């Protein structure tokens, strides 16, 4: 997959890499799906490269911390190469295990890299443990923290990092990229993916791969027309599926918010109050989704009801 929009980040990284004193901690900040993890992996390979030494695809001096499988059953799925569910957070035990490994010297050269993705999903105790390593980094160790929501990180962690910001693509550039990456995608779905993704290539491609086009159309209809007979909400629940994984559920909630945001751009200001209220409730619902065990059908009905509440007053159903 080709990646766009990283030119400025690469320039800053390589200037620092060529300098006399490379900063030991970097915060890669930007919305989900901009390719920050791909950048982190490539940057880590450059950092750890040694002349005349080939480390292959798995460099022993590049350590990646991310979500682990949520239980033994999911761990077996990972070992078998199957899709698996993950824990919601990066744990303090993972950080402590890493710190134990950092007591030794790098394997191949003088440098090693630690990538944490996403750092904004660190448990509180894990954040406090990581802070100790950032305050007193082992010699030759560099940290790359991938963050979709940097404000969730401890201020003391943010203050110890140099920030690389990753910006969304404009619609035209993203449309061209998506056409190249998903040539079988029709123009209408591609346009919806560009709008829904907010400039994120990863989210746009995820929209296409997850088949969210029909959901987008249904949500847009509900916001504009209402849903007096609950027929459209029933179709939404059916389109969501009976057993969506956490990632699909999060993608659908993000889509609902993007539909409301798009409607705000085209609606008269007098209609903004109901759109803003519905958007705020969806933000609350999205915050609950990772920890609540929602019934998929009921969750989609609630999403549909919030969308219907934002429909023009003359069309709105009592909800």
TrEMBL record:
Keywords: Nucleotidyltransferase, Transferase
Keyword Transferase: yes
Organism expressing this protein natively: Pelagerythrobacter marensis
Gene3D superfamilies linked: P-loop containing nucleotide triphosphate hydrolases (3.40.50.300)
InterPro entries to which the protein is assigned, alphabetical: DNA_Rep/Repair_Clamp_Loader, P-loop_NTPase
A GO molecular function held by the record: DNA-directed DNA polymerase activity
PANTHER family (alphabetical): DNA POLYMERASE III SUBUNIT DELTA (PTHR11669:SF8), REPLICATION FACTOR C / DNA POLYMERASE III GAMMA-TAU SUBUNIT (PTHR11669)
Enzyme class of the recorded protein, top EC level: transferase
Name of the protein in question: DNA polymerase III subunit delta
Entry EC no(s): 2.7.7.7
Biased composition (Basic and acidic residues): 60-84
Matching Pfam families: DNA_pol3_delta2 (PF13177)
């Amino acid at each position: 997959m080709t990646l766009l929009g990283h030119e400025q980040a690469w320039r800053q990284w390589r200037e620092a890499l060529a300098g006399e004193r490379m900063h030991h901690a970097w915060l890669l900040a930007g919305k989900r799906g901009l390719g920050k993890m791909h950048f982190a992996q490539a940057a880590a390979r450059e950092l750890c490269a040694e002349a005349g030494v080939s480390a292959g695809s798995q460099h022993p001096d590049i350590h990646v911390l991310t979500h682990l499988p949520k239980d033994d059953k999911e761990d077996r799925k990972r070992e078998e190469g199957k899709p698996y569910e993950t824990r919601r957070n990066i744990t303090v035990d993972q950080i402590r295990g890493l710190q134990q490994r950092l007591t030794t010297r790098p394997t191949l050269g003088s440098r090693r890299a630690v990538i944490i993705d996403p750092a904004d999903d660190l448990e509180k105790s894990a954040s406090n443990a990581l802070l100790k390593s950032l305050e007193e980094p082992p010699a030759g160790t560099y940290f790359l923290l991938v963050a979709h929501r940097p404000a969730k990180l401890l201020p003391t962690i943010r203050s110890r990092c140099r920030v690389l910001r990753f910006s969304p693509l404009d619609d035209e550039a993203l449309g061209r990229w998506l056409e190249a990456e998903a040539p079988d995608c029709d123009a209408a779905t591609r346009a919806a993916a560009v709008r829904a993704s907010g400039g994120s290539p990863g989210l746009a491609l995820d929209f296409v791969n997850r088949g969210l086009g029909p959901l987008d159309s249904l949500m847009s209809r509900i916001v504009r027309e209402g849903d007096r007979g609950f027929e459209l909400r029933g179709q939404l629940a059916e389109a969501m599926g009976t057993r969506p994984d956490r990632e699909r559920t999060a993608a659908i909630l993000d889509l609902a918010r993007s539909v409301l945001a798009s409607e705000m751009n085209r609606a008269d200001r007098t209609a903004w109050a109901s759109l803003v209220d519905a958007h705020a409730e969806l933000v609350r619902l999205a915050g609950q989704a990772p920890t609540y065990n929602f019934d998929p059908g009921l969750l989609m009905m609630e999403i549909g009801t919030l969308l219907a509440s934002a429909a023009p007053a003359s069309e709105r159903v009592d909800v």
